[in-house]
Amino acid sequence: MKRSVSRRDFLQLAGAVGGSTAVYRAAIALALMPAITHAAKPQLAALTRSRKVLILGGGISGLTAAYELNRKGYEVQVLEASFRAGGRNMTVRNGDRIDETGYPQVCNFDKDPDLYFNCGPARIPGHHKALLNYCKELDVELEPFINDNRNAWVQDDAMFGGKPVRAREYMTDSRGFVAELMSKSMTPEQFSASMTKEDYERLREYLKYLGSLDPGFKYAGSSNAGLALHDYTSPEVLKTPLDGRELLKSRFMAIMSFGETDDQAAMMMEPVGGMDRVPAGFLRKIGHLVQLESQVQKIQVMERGVEVTYRRDGQYIKTRADYVLNCIPMHLLAGIEHNFPKEYAAGLTAIPRGKLFKIGFQMKERFWEKEGIYGGISWTLQDIQQLWYPAHGINRQKGVMLGAYTFDPNAGEKFARLAPAERFKLAIAQGEKIHPGYGSYVESGVSIAWHQMNHMLGCAAQWDEELWKKWFKTLQTPVGNHYLMGDQVSYHPGWQEGAMASAHHAIADIDARERAGAVVAA
Amino acid sequence: MNHALRKSMGRIAVAIAAALVAGSAGAGNNFDYCLLCHGASANGNFGIRAPKISGMEPWYLARQLENFATGVRGIPADDVSGHEMGPVGSRVKTEGTLDAAVQFVGTLESKRPATTVRGDTAHGKELYKTCVACHGAKGEGSQALQAPALAARSDWYLATQLANYKLGLRGADERDTYGAQMRAIATTLADEKAITDVVAYINTLK
């Protein structure tokens, strides 16, 4: 017999299974709460007179602006300093150059559509609407990206003598341990009067589900932690819970919820064949507007328009435009000759640059799949921090996996100082703690020290609350007809969505000025 | 998606990639990457703590590149900017382009950098007396003594290097004979104020 489930029942169920995020999401789906809103892509007016826009930098924000402005009749030229377009959206395959200032490298992966490495952005969450819309518009095919895998490993020298445990085991057993402790120590008297006896019981009930506790509120293991043996011809045998106090010795607790955060939660996507299919999509439309190997040396904001001098083949070339959209990383822009106001110039050196570091290894065998790991991330508290397993090419012979992805600037610097071969050696030694025999699978590697990459010298700008308050408006506001752009001028640095938002913001402003001008002219 | 389709997509991808990438760029005698850190015409970029190197003496540039390449400079844990220059030193050394890099810097248009360090120039003048013997009364330097010019350099960089000498982040390597001399002198500067004062005085030298 069917019983219809009321909305309230459903939300309670969702809460028990998935926590408050699930309740929130479900409430949106049931139209009880307003849906997430997005800044709309600006609808530019078609241009009625000639306007030249010079875009400095062919990364995601520059290409976005070039694509939109070109469609509306603006005369657009993109000057890109590097030998390639795309900015930090960079995928390497067989034969590709990695243009690091001190240690230039060449990618020696086999020639194969699945053997590539995304050096910069590598995943797209479902709410990054601007990027997802461009993927659709530009025929960039997407496939699922696995960001969170409970079968992957957690390794920390601080617990179990450095022996790795499965993520599902860490999470389930530590939650069980904490939930049992809380339910044992919690008494109704501890809560304020507004909490009724029923509320208190519901809270205990919540803890029971949260920690997979038994009816006596004891944690005695759970299949969520994985079975001791997956033999389905005999009764299930649970694993013995790991020592809770030992689990809490690990700072993994700070990373544990990574796969639940706003930008990192399922369902995530990646372009088929590599993240650089995104710039390739733009370039199919406006590639002819992009001039490579043109390094800007001087910017003069004039009363009308902007004058730019760039260096190409050792020659200095001067050019002028009505508008300049400048995507050059701020810390590099500070070294370019300019006539910006003092306050604006000071902002350029005020935001620290990111120092993220990545390694990609071509493995002769997808050994992780033999361990039941298909996609996702293993975490370690060592320098390498993460190992990623590719979600594409499952069951094929070889794969390119991520062998290091550091968030800590000190770890990034530690790797960056080493020559590539030494970087690999260090990453392999650390990877061995997670996968014994790891190094024996490595066929070739690439390393990306973003703060030493030519034309970049940094990853995402490291804004914080105070810096945002002090500098953001100054840097976002145009100086004459000169606009600063890129993910660096967004509240979402380090994401392509942030870069696109900054581009939309700048071109909407130009559009407004042009419309106003058109009215005046009329 | 079937494998054949994927393969052909891969080929298209490669073709596009090839179209995107300019032909000639790269190794050899293209030193534009120096300007990336050291700024337009290598007149310095405080934003990434890269000093002005245009107008520097070729013999001094060559020696420092050599020092970075061999780890005489840029090794101590706290010398973060030095860490970034280390790999570049190794690069020009292994590529055999060290001299060409020095030559390239010599082609750039050197401009007097903006003043960023201010202090008590009278006190600085007193302190500078110790420097005169090697670096000259006008901060013009002396090749014979292997002492570089100090006038018209990035002033914040001079201050950083004096602090680095004092802290042993520079000049502590036993192979660094000139650095050791400089380190001995720098330790006579009592404190940060002494450093800013002497640099403020150097700023007045023409």
Describe this structure in words.
With 522 residues, chain A is α/β, with parallel strands linked by helices. In chain A, the strands form eight sheets. Chain A has a five-stranded parallel β-sheet, covered by helices on one side. In chain A, helix 2 packs parallel to helix 14 and helix 4 runs antiparallel to helix 5. The N terminus of chain A is likely disordered. Chain B is mostly helical and 206 residues long. Chain B contains nine helices and no strands. The longest helix of chain B is centred in the first third of the chain and has 18 residues. About 10% of the residues of chain B have low confidence. At the A-B interface, helix 7, strand 13, helix 8 and helix 11 of A face helix 1, helix 2 and helix 4 of B.
Assess the beta-strand content of chain A as a share of residues: 15-25%
* Total count of helical runs of at least 4 residues of chain A: 14
- Amount of helix of chain B: 40-55%
**Low-confidence blocks of residues of chain B:** 8-27
Mean pLDDT of chain A: 92
Task: Reconstruct the topology from this structure.
The complex is a heterodimer of chains A (522) and B (206).
Chain A: H1 7-29, E1 52-56, H2 60-71, E2 75-79, E3 91-92, E4 97-98, E5 105-106, E6 117-118, E7 124-125, H3 129-137, E8 142-145, E9 153-155, E10 165-166, H4 167-185, H5 197-210, H6 244-247, E11 268-271, H7 277-286, E12 290-291, E13 295-301, E14 306-312, E15 315-321, E16 323-326, H8 330-333, E17 337-338, H9 342-348, E18 353-354, E19 357-363, H10 367-370, E20 376-380, E21 386-389, E22 399-406, H11 409-417, H12 420-431, E23 442-449, E24 459-461, H13 465-476, E25 482-484, H14 496-521
Helix pairs in contact in A: 2-7, 2-14, 4-5, 9-13
Chain B: H1 3-20, H2 32-38, H3 58-70, H4 80-95, H5 98-106, H6 121-135, H7 155-167, H8 177-186, H9 192-202
Helix pairs in contact in B: 3-4, 3-5, 6-9, 7-8, 7-9
